[in-house]
Amino acid sequence: MIDFTFYSPTEFVFGKNTEEKTGQLALRYGAKRALVIYGGGSAVRSGLLDRVTKALEEQGIQTVTTGGVRPNPTDDKVYEGIKIAKDENIDFIVAVGGGSVIDTAKAIACGVNYDGDFWDFFIGKAQVHEALPVGVVLTIPAAGSEGSGNAVITKESTQQKLGIKHPMTLRPKFAVMNPELTMTLPEWQTASGICDMMVHILERYFTNTENTEIGDRMCEGVLTAIVNEGRKVTESPDDYDARANIMWSGMVAHNGTCGVGCVEDWSSHQMEHEVSALYDVTHGAGLAVITPAYMTFMAKHHPKRIAQFAERVMGVAKEFGNEEDRAQEGVQRFKDFLHNDLRLPVTFKQLGIENPDIPELVRRLHKNKGDRFGLFYPITPEVSEEIYKLGM
């Protein structure tokens, strides 16, 4: 186990009707003029946006709203939000939605008081030292952005999908989490979110750091719970307790708790980002293709952790063949869960990409990440090409 600093100051308010507390929470954290940002029309049609703005205004907080954030959020909405925030003297941002909306809010928050282009933060030209405070009303359990200091944005002109990580400045001040708000989500969105949160844990679990028993058991426990509750919520979308467990799992998966004391990897996410940037697919669905392909490669070349996952999470007996055999069987059971239980694609063709341009994916990936990346196993162009091909 390595030394670490863990800082997670977000206040979580969980349960039924908790969106009505948004105004009290924002006021507690100093809001006077709030920019309320949301995605598509569901927040409007459901009345959630009105309830949130009413809760804010009842506390004397003036509000300005802007919508239209789409999945795989893009830089145009960030630039638009920065302009609104400057013009309207905004001092607080409330994100109503899922990871795309929250990440957009974070990018706006760090860009408002910066003299340059906010994209400088994403290409490593500048570091985030200050940001407007952000609050969240979560509607989609998936990205875990409600509890993290991370954000991912796509620059449309270059089709670059890049992320930043600044836990000291970009973690939300509060996150309102009402599982009832997730009950009307389409099955596809729920399933994609479940895959995303599982891979957030796996990116921390696939580590070469030794003596991480606490972290390992936390990862394995949450992964096992997600498998069990994921099956329940797929079969019974109105099951409040299953929805609640999935919603909290998404936060735990990405607020850093499962990764303390170990060197994290994130290769699967980096490889998938190129797929969703180029083909605009749902991130969680893209991960359902890329992550099993990545694990299949590792089962052959670096099997120890994959075999441990197979035994402790997917129920593969220790007597089942050798280490590689157990690893491969675990990957197959994971794919079966994603495809048969969650009804997600596990190949490029099922994802709707009949003939992926693998050379272009490899080129873009290594242009953004260098000729060699990956902290669990070195990802060279030859390795990434093989993994993308395994997604076929």
Essential attributes:
alpha/beta, 6-stranded parallel sheet, 17 helices, 392 residues, two-stranded antiparallel ribbon, single chain, 50% helix, 8 strands
Give a description of the structure.
With 392 residues, the chain is α/β, with parallel strands linked by helices. It is built from 17 helices and eight strands. The chain has helices spanning 22-28, 42-45, 48-57, 75-87, 99-111, 119-122, 167-170, 187-205, 213-235, 240-252, 267-279, 283-301, 304-312, 323-341, 348-351, 358-369, 381-390; strands at 11-14, 33-38, 62-66, 92-97, 134-138, 150-155, 160-165, 174-177. A six-stranded parallel sheet has the order 1-8-5-4-2-3, with helices on both faces. Strand 6 and strand 7 form a beta hairpin. The radius of gyration is 20 Å and the shape is globular. It starts with 10 loop residues before the first strand and ends with a helix. The mean pLDDT is 97.
Largest sheet: 6 strands, parallel
> What structural category do the secondary elements indicate?
alpha/beta
Strand content: 5-15%
Topology pattern, helix = H, strand = E: EHEHHEHEHHEEEHEHHHHHHHHHH
Please give the order of strands in the largest beta sheet.
1-8-5-4-2-3
Shape summary: globular
The low-confidence runs, each spanning 5 or more residues with pLDDT under 50, are none
What is the subunit arrangement here? single chain
Helix proportion? 40-55%
The overall pLDDT average reads: 97
Count of DSSP-assigned helices: 17
- The number of strands is 8
Query: Radius of gyration, Cα only, in angstroms?
Result: 20 Å
Whole-Å distance between the termini?
37 Å
